[in-house]
Specification:
The protein is mostly helical. Helices cover 71% and strands 0% of the residues. Helix 7 packs antiparallel against helix 8. The longest helix is centred in the C-terminal third of the chain and has 27 residues.
């Protein structure tokens, strides 16, 4: 964590090679990360985020990039839900973020959605993927509700924010659909088809939302 603290002291983005090399060395050393090591890493990252990043937007890009490089898929559901609330969701919700920063946030989410079945002996990655697929689709449906028509500034700003968030979520879902082709063929307990069945009334009024699902799933009537 000394390297991460140093990187945050003088934020350089994209991450310089020396920082990436240290992260890769750590990953090589703890390639078979056990639960204890994962918990320790999670707690140290939370501490660094609270002390160095929260309230300091100039350090967000570096922290996001380091978090992405570390491989968030090593964490369990509860840890990742915490990171969603304090790191990813605020990035998705902020229209002022640069494209590279939102791209890192999208990549973090995608990395926990997509997994290799042969590398998931405990089923933890499948569980994480299911939880976050549900979460993304719920947010997408919520943010694509048509707002009450108004010319007032607050309503216009809210609509723009909803579009920004839904665009980020849509990009992740589409990328997931492309990277996880089994979703199109054998829907399981976390896949898009189940969610289409769960919310038919909400989707029927949004032809373009159903169009998204068709692109992602090759869904046929």
């Amino acid at each position: 964590m000394r390297t991460l603290n140093s990187a945050l002291a003088i934020p350089l983005y994209p991450l310089p090679d020396n920082v990436l090399n240290v992260i890769q060395t750590y990953l090589n050393r703890y390639l078979e990360t056990d639960a204890q090591e994962s918990t320790r890493l999670h707690e140290e990252l939370l501490n660094i985020h609270a002390l160095r990043v929260q309230g300091n937007p100039d350090k967000l890009a570096v922290f996001l990039a380091c978090f992405r490089a570390l491989g968030p898929e090593i964490f369990g559901v509860e840890e990742l839900l915490k990171w969603w609330e304090i790191l990813v969701k605020p990035t998705f919700d902020s229209m002022g973020q640069g494209k590279a920063i939102t791209a890192d946030a999208r990549a973090i989410v995608l990395s926990v959605l997509v997994y290799d079945d042969d590398d998931d002996q405990t089923g933890q990655k499948a569980q994480v993927s299911s939880v976050f697929t549900d979460k993304l689709f719920e947010i997408f449906l919520e943010k694509t509700k048509l707002p009450v028509s108004s010319d007032t500034g607050p309503v216009i700003h809210e609509e723009q924010n909803h579009r920004f968030v839904s665009a980020n979520v849509e990009a992740v879902l589409l990328a997931y659909g492309k990277r996880k082709p089994k979703v199109r063929q054998v829907p399981t307990d976390g896949d898009y088809l189940r969610m289409l069945i769960r919310w038919p009334d909400r989707l029927s009024s949004k032809g373009w939302t159903l169009s998204l699902s068709r692109r992602s799933l090759d869904f046929k009537h």
